[in-house]
Predict the structure.
Amino acid sequence: MHDKTILIADNSVINRMQMGGILASEYNILEADNGRDALDIMNEHGADGIDVVLLDLHMPGQTGFDVLAEKQANPAIADIPVIVITADSVTAAEVRALDAGASDFLIKPIEPEIMRRRIHLVINARELEEQRMLEEAAWITDHDDLTGLYTRKAFLREMQDMIDVNPSNEYMIAVWDFENFKTFNELFGTTLGDRMLITAAHCMGEHVAGSGVYGRLGNDNFAFCIEVGQADVEAIMEAISGGIKALLAQSNIDFTPSLVTGVYLVDDNGVEASVMLDRAMMARNTVKGDYDHHIAFYNTELTERMLEEQDIINNMEHALDNGEFHVQLQPVHDIVTGRPVSAEALVRWHRPGHGVVSPGVFVPLFEENGFISKMDHDIWEQVCQILANRRDEGLPEIPISVNLSRRSIFDSSLYDEIVALVEKYDVKPSLFRIEITESSYTENMGLVISMVTRLRDYGFTVLMDDFGSGYSSFNAFSDIPVNILKADMVFMQNLERNPRVASIFTSIVNMAHSLDIPVIAEGVETKEQFEFLRSVGCDYAQGYYCARPMDLEAFTAHVDEH
Ligand code: C2E
Ligand code: MG
Ligand code: MG
């Protein structure tokens, strides 16, 4: 058995013997004495089973041209190289044969040495071509179409290789992306968005090539891995940002992109590459959406925190079914009379083995994964039940407000859900109040305005929560038709420390009053704060000074006492 196989297709047995005799010492020989057989043999052995076909052009029945045509039309065998054998010295026939897909030709009588060389050349050419195609295919799967950088998979492999070659060196992995790349695409179009990515890739390459590996993980996510001390992550990120700014300047856009980076300083070179990448990403997540910090380093606390978060997420559905989310009520007191006039419903998770868990621990996670809408629905239902029970027991009416997550306000079913609940319990909509936190307003003001208007038209009272805690307070307040303003507790916290806070707070109360909107001050903890609020005409106070959040029984007693 030889490595390579040649099919000789010739109707003359003498020709076949002659050629076979020359080639048998080097190749396996297959023979066909007509065109039909030649095609059948090719089909049987396939493109990998035959290395060259020597094809006589003049055979009875199917001629060599017919064979060529049928072979070319069949993808399974089209790649098999064919050398045609002709007695004609007429160039036209040779040209036709080459056009029809033959690789080369030989003229009878056959010169053994020439035949051998042509066969070698044809086989080598095919092998080279295959090699090239394999390389090209590998390049394509390893590289991203748009930027030409390594794909995620290839980056991880190359990074692992780099570390494995010199495991005693210290490495660092940085993962970065754009803050709000989506918005940018929407504002300026994907063409420019793509050019930004290409420019970013190019800049990163310029600074990392030679000292490390880098790639595009997908969308606007990039990563690089360098040896510690070889380059400075912050300088690299500055350079990338500068490159993009320059690109945008060409389109007359004055914009400095904000790049968010997470870095993992590899403390254990034995950790899998993908885990290293995850750690860098975990670090990056801590600075996403943060105006002041754009770069963060991984530490082990992040893993612990992630595990805790995972634990919460794994248990949330069960907790809801098990009725572990309870409402606490915090009274809101009238500043003039000192009496409780309304309340805020605040969720508490009575988690077996963990005690009472505060919303600060789980609400942000539920907002991220969408579970908040289910949990909030449960809380709203509990509030409706409380209101309905008070009515049935003939207790005085007292409105209770619920918190609406930033996410729920953009949920189209929100309105129907709330309306269905108050109808189910036959609760007066004016007693069911809705707090919308200030940070919801930044995203889509138009939608928020129409939602608030609809809720108000039905008869609900809408409160603007956490006023003054964000960047957009005044814009939002002037555009959104809320009924009540809740001033964030930062005002009370800074009242004594900073004398300007008192005058700012006073202007807020006056501004709200000029629009007939009452003000609730949050976080009132001391008598001094309460007296200050009274002196500036603030309407209501909520805070530990008046009452802490409490369970229903304590709340009923508290209202009753006053
Ligand atoms: P928020 O709506 O601004 O609620 C006021 C927070 O201030 C509550 O924290 C309350 O316990 C606390 N507080 C009240 N008086 C004082 C005081 O005098 N001093 C201090 N330092 N704090 C005071 P809590 O209950 O931990 O809730 C935190 C946040 O979680 C809430 O802020 C709200 O945004 C969110 N949240 C609470 N319950 C729910 C809920 O059922 N659904 C949703 N979506 N979010 C909720
Ligand atoms: Mg609130
Ligand atoms: Mg608040």
The two ends are 104 Å apart (CA to CA).
